[in-house]
Amino acid sequence: AARGSLASCNVSPTEVEEVYMGAVLQAGMGQAPARQVALGAEMGNDTPATTVNKVCASGMKSVMMAAQSIDLGHRQVMVAGGMEAMSKAPHYAYLRQPTPYGEHKMLDAIKSDGLTDVYNSMLM
Predict the structure, then answer these.
(1) What's the rounded Cα separation, in Å, for the pair 117 and 113?
(2) Contact 37, 49 (CB under 8 A)
(3) CA 95 from chain center: how many Å?
(4) What number is the average pLDDT over the span 39-64?
(5) What residues does 54 pair with on adjacent strands?
(6) Is 51 exposed, middle or buried (0-12, 13-18, 19+ CB in 10 A)?
(7) Among 9-23, 35-49, 91-105, 108-122, whose mean pLDDT is lowest?
(8) Where does the Thiolase N-terminal domain lie (predicted)?
(9) Most buried residue, 7, 16, 40, 116, by CB count within 10 Å?
(10) Whole-angstrom Cα distance, residue 32 to residue 35?
(11) How would you write 59-101 as a 3-class SS string?
(12) DSSP state of 123
C-alpha cells in the first residue's frame, strides 16, 4: 500500500525521510512492522521507521506525529498510517510454566490485546 501511495503521488521511495506506522496487534507480524513497510516499499535501508502502538488510535497517532515533524521543519516527505492483520492474530498458550494437571487455556490475541481494557478487564 505504501509503494502504491507513493507511486500515485509521483514520489520516489528514496525521497521518503521517515516512516511511522501504527499497529495494535503486533503479535505474528514479525519484528519492526514499520521497517517491513519501508523495505517493502523500496525505501533506503537508512530510512528511519517507527511502529506506534496506541491501541485504536495507533494509525491516527502515526499520522499526527508525521504531520508534527513536517510542521516543525524536521522532515519534508514522510509515510504514515496504520496496518493490521486481525485475521492472522494468534492465540496464546502460556506453556513455559508447568501445569501439574488439567488443560492449558488459550487466549485470543484480538480479545486480550485489542478489545479488552487492561485496566478494568471489560470489552471495549
Answers:
(1) 8
(2) yes
(3) 26
(4) 96
(5) 56
(6) buried
(7) 91-105
(8) 3-124
(9) 16
(10) 5
(11) HHHHHHHHHHHHHCCCCCCEEEEECCCHHHCCEEECCCCCCCC
(12) B
Residue type, 65: M
State the residue for C-alpha cell 491501541: 55
Which one-letter amino acid corresponds to residue 34? A
Order of all β-strands in the sheet with 78-82: 49-52, 18-22, 78-82
Secondary structure element (H or E) that encloses residue 35, with its range? helix 33-40
Q: Which amino acid is at 50?
A: T
Q: How many CB atoms lie within 10 A of CB 13?
A: 19
pTM: 0.87
Residue 94 clears pLDDT 90, i.e. is over it? no
Q: In order of start, what are the domains of the chain with their CATH numbers? A: 2-87 (3.40.47.10)
Q: What average pLDDT score do residues 94-121 get?
A: 86
What number of CA atoms fall less than 13 Å from residue 115's CA on the CB side? 8
Q: What nine digits make up the cell of 14?
A: 528514496
Determine the residue type at 68: Q
Which residues touch 90 (CB under 8 Å, ≥6 apart)? 27, 28, 109
